[in-house]
Q: What sequence folds into this?
């Protein structure tokens, strides 16, 4: 007999007593039923797979052991989207099912119970998992039970739903994995010998996709065990239940057409029946009689019966992705399931020989763009997955892993919402079953990236022969570097000296461990920003200018003060930490420059004779109309100036409330300023800030401008409103190319279609103290204006009608005009300096600083790396720069007259 229920109840009770050694993958997205009768499944086709493979590549970036039998591998997957190459980071946990010291299992909510949810990291910590990922899909507004089947530690927790194309992964107690569709087959048997079919165990109500009865619990019988902690079994208003309490195999209560108001006791289960099933109960069962239940799972592909007690674990998922080592036709309609698009992804699969299980997570964060399901298929086949299926993804995608020597698992990478982990109903986990071993070594942890002059902090923790943490007390380390002077080691202090990569090796009691440390050079930066980049040119002024570097691979790094050198123009000052103090101002100076350099890469703070940030709107005296508008039928809301709350009590704010529950598609809720026209922003602004009261809806927050040329420009205030209460939001406008005067037309909330169920449909946000940072017009005071012209090959320049001699004529090379920049600055103001050691020209004019290097097409403009098609070069001892490139970056206009070979520059 398969799956004797009395034995299952003992197993459930036992597993709770010993605390499951389980980790679960839990999903948070409810999928609407997909296919009706006669509908065709949308699929990825063979030619799509071949085309994708031809334009993709996979490379392994790193590999590290987590525990005996499990390791973490990070990959870079490269593909082409819209003609451009895109890199995606993916993390894979490989589990060796033949290793006796590692196992896979599924964790459930809190305390191992259904009807509860918890973050992936929380479940891993509670159950002492080595690693875990989120798991099955579930109805976020339901009773917090997985949609698919679940077996944990050999106990059948929940049976599969009757939905087509929903796959599940099982692993048997002898370590054999299988991915298939599973159905449930069970019966209960009364004392008089009559039987009735069971439809499932611990299921919430749902709409089925085939058969004459569309409601899962109509005319049906289900078992609910003590794992189901809710007093409702399920909370289904469409069916009136008849319930039977069975304890130790004996019927102790029968409640006809009324639910038993109780949770399920540890020593029993409750039968929940409706319609014909309820009639059978009232006909054949009585209190005091015995009742038995037999059940099994059936693999649909093979027809094989599976006894749940022979399984280590089972976790449900969604569509099949890979079969036979190739991309499979999707078994669910992806579009109607709401899981399409480019998202973070979670999947699981196994190798052809069944030895290895691969737990996969594709990142979508500041370092990685996410994957489509077709791209996920391509990646999975590239790493050796023979059969694989999709798990819940998007905002649910979360992987936690335990580094060597650490006691608990932590986030492997940032989720779509940063470090926030969504709460889910189950997770797939990796567990060590090894005994405690002897000290094998220790793991060194610390910063793998340093800046020149920055000190790094490093620690060591021990691990045993099974790569599990072991207590070693305080480990005393002796350090040495591989080196070439990349880092210095002195009395245990590690410091970056010059750009490059070094291997740091720590030794203790004959054991050693190494870590690679990269010291970043200026060539590896994409930007260098000092505070807001603006300040007041007044003696005694002190301003905060924390310097942040952004690397070409997207990392943001705080630059320590000792890593920077500073030069002041137009004033005298000093730097202490991240504070700049103006000691005195050069007589007559209207603008000053604090130029900071990190390994030659520049950033600039432009100081002007007047303050630069202005509060544009505080909503205290609004005289123009503010209206609520939307793009979608069914979306309602309001936008108005109202009294503030909390820290804004006593002042007025702009409040935007919205209700999108009746809308469809991509939905917007706008607070429209000044009718349909918007309110004017008169001067060029480099940044905008505002106080925003968030509603933690995870919706997108944006602002919309119309510029002087009629162009619509969008500024992202927050990709996800992941906070509640008031917070100051800052937005960089300098890269948006807004032509001024512009108009701020509206601020608004967006609920996009992808992962729509993850965000709130209703909410309220508010805005206050909208401010713009505007470079003072005084930065242009004193700069000459007018027109200048040069003719190719002639050593003369005509400025405002006056012809003057110059010492080098303009040169035309490969269609580009080159001149010594000195002549342009003589005519229009500014200054230039030459660094012969680094072959660098630095040009300053108004509020602009440009660094150009001979032979390099990239240049630095106010701390940001830019690309050009031409580069400066040296000719006859003179350094020549591309005239149009430099002049236009300095705010000048350049025109070319082909007939006379004349260049005209104007300001």
A:
């Amino acid at each position: 007999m398969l799956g004797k229920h009395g034995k299952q109840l003992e197993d459930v009770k036992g597993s709770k007593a010993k605390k499951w050694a389980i980790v679960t993958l839990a999903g948070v997205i409810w999928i609407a039923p997909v296919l009706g009768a006669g509908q065709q499944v949308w699929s990825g086709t063979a030619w799509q797979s071949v085309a994708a493979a031809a334009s993709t590549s996979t490379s392994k970036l790193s590999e590290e052991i987590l525990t005996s039998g499990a390791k973490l591998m990070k990959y870079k997957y490269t593909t082409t989207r819209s003609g451009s190459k895109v890199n995606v980071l993916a993390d894979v946990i490989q589990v060796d099912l033949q290793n006796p010291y590692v196992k896979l299992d599924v964790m459930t909510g809190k305390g191992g119970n259904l009807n509860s949810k918890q973050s992936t990291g929380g479940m891993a910590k509670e159950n002492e998992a080595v690693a875990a990922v989120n798991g099955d899909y579930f109805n976020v507004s339901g009773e917090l039970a997985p949609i698919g089947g679940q077996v944990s530690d050999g106990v059948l927790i929940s049976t599969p739903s009757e939905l087509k194309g929903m796959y599940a992964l099982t692993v048997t107690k002898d370590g054999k994995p299988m991915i298939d569709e599973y159905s449930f087959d069970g019966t209960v048997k009364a004392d008089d010998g009559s039987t009735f079919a069971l439809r499932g165990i611990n299921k919430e109500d749902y709409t089925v996709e085939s058969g004459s009865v569309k409601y899962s619990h109509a005319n049906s019988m289900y078992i609910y065990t003590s794992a189901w902690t809710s007093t409702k079994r399920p909370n289904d208003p469409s069916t009136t239940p008849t319930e039977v309490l069975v304890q130790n195999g004996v019927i102790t209560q029968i409640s006809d057409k009324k639910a038993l108001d109780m949770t399920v006791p540890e020593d029993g289960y409750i039968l929940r029946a409706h319609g014909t099933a309820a009639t059978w109960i009232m006909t054949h069962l009585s209190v005091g009689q015995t009742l038995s239940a037999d059940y099994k799972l059936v693999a649909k592909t093979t027809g094989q019966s599976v006894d749940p007690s022979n399984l280590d674990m089972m976790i449900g998922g969604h569509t099949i992705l890979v079969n036979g080592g190739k991309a499979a036709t999707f078994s669910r309609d992806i579009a109607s399931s709401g899981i399409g698009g480019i998202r973070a992804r979670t999947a699981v699969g196994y190798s052809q020989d069944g030895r290895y299980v691969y737990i996969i997570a594709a990142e979508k964060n500041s370092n990685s763009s996410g994957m489509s399901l077709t791209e996920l298929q391509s990646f999975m086949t590239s790493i050796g997955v023979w059969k694989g299926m999709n798990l819940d993804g998007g905002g649910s995608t979360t992987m936690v892993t335990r580094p060597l020597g650490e006691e608990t698992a932590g986030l492997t990478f940032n989720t779509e919402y940063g470090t926030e982990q969504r709460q889910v109903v189950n997770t797939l986990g990796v567990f060590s079953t090894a005994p405690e071993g002897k000290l094998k070594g220790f793991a060194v942890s610390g910063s793998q990236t340093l800046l020149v002059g920055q000190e790094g902090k490093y620690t060591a923790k021990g691990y045993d022969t099974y790569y599990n943490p072991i207590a070693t007390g305080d480990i005393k380390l002796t350090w040495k570097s591989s080196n070439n002077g990349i880092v210095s080691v002195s009395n245990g202090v590690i410091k970056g000296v010059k750009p490059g990569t070094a291997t740091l090796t720590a030794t203790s009691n004959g054991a050693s461990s190494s870590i690679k440390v990269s010291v970043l050079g200026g060539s590896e930066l994409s930007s260098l920003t000092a505070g807001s980049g603006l300040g007041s040119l007044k003696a005694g002024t002190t301003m905060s200018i924390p310097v942040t570097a952004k690397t070409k691979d997207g990392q943001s790094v705080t630059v320590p003060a000792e890593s920077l050198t500073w030069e002041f123009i137009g004033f005298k000052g000093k730097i202490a930490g991240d504070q700049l103090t103006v000691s005195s101002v050069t007589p007559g100076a209207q603008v000053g420059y604090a130029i900071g350099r990190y390994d030659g890469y520049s950033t600039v703070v432009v100081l002007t004779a007047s303050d630069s940030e202005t509060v544009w709107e505080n909503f205290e005296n609004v005289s123009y109309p503010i209206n609520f508008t939307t793009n979608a039928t069914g979306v309602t809301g309001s936008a108005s100036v109202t009294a503030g709350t909390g820290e804004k009590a006593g002042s007025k704010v702009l409040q935007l409330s919205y209700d999108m529950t009746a809308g469809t598609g991509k939905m917007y809720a706008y607070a429209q300023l000044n009718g349909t026209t918007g309110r004017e922003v008169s001067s060029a602004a480099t940044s905008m800030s505002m106080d925003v009261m968030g509603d933690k809806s995870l919706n997108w927050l944006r602002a919309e401008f119309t510029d002087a040329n009629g162009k619509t420009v969008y500024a992202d205030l927050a990709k996800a409103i992941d906070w509640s209460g008031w917070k100051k939001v800052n937005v960089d406008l300098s890269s948006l190319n807004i032509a001024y005067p512009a108009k701020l037309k509206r601020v608004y909330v967006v609920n996009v279609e992808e992962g729509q169920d993850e965000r709130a449909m209703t909410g309220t946000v508010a805005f206050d103290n909208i401010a713009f940072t505007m470079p003072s017009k005084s930065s242009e005071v004193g700069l000459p204006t007018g027109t200048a012209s040069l003719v190719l090959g002639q050593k003369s320049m005509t400025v405002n009608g006056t012809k003057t001699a110059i010492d080098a004529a303009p040169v035309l090379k490969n269609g580009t005009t080159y001149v010594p920049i000195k002549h342009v600055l003589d005519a229009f103001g500014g200054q230039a300096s030459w660094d012969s050691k680094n072959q660098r020209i630095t040009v300053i004019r108004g509020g602009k600083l440009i660094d150009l290097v001979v032979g390099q097409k990239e240049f630095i403009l106010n701390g940001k790396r830019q690309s050009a098609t031409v580069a400066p070069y040296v000719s006859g001892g003179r350094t020549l720069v591309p005239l149009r490139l430099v002049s236009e970056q300095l705010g000048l206009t350049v025109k070319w007259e082909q007939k006379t070979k004349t260049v005209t520059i104007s300001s």
The CA atoms of residues 101 and 447 lie 31 Å apart. Residues 439-520 form a domain with the Immunoglobulin-like fold (CATH 2.60.40.1080).
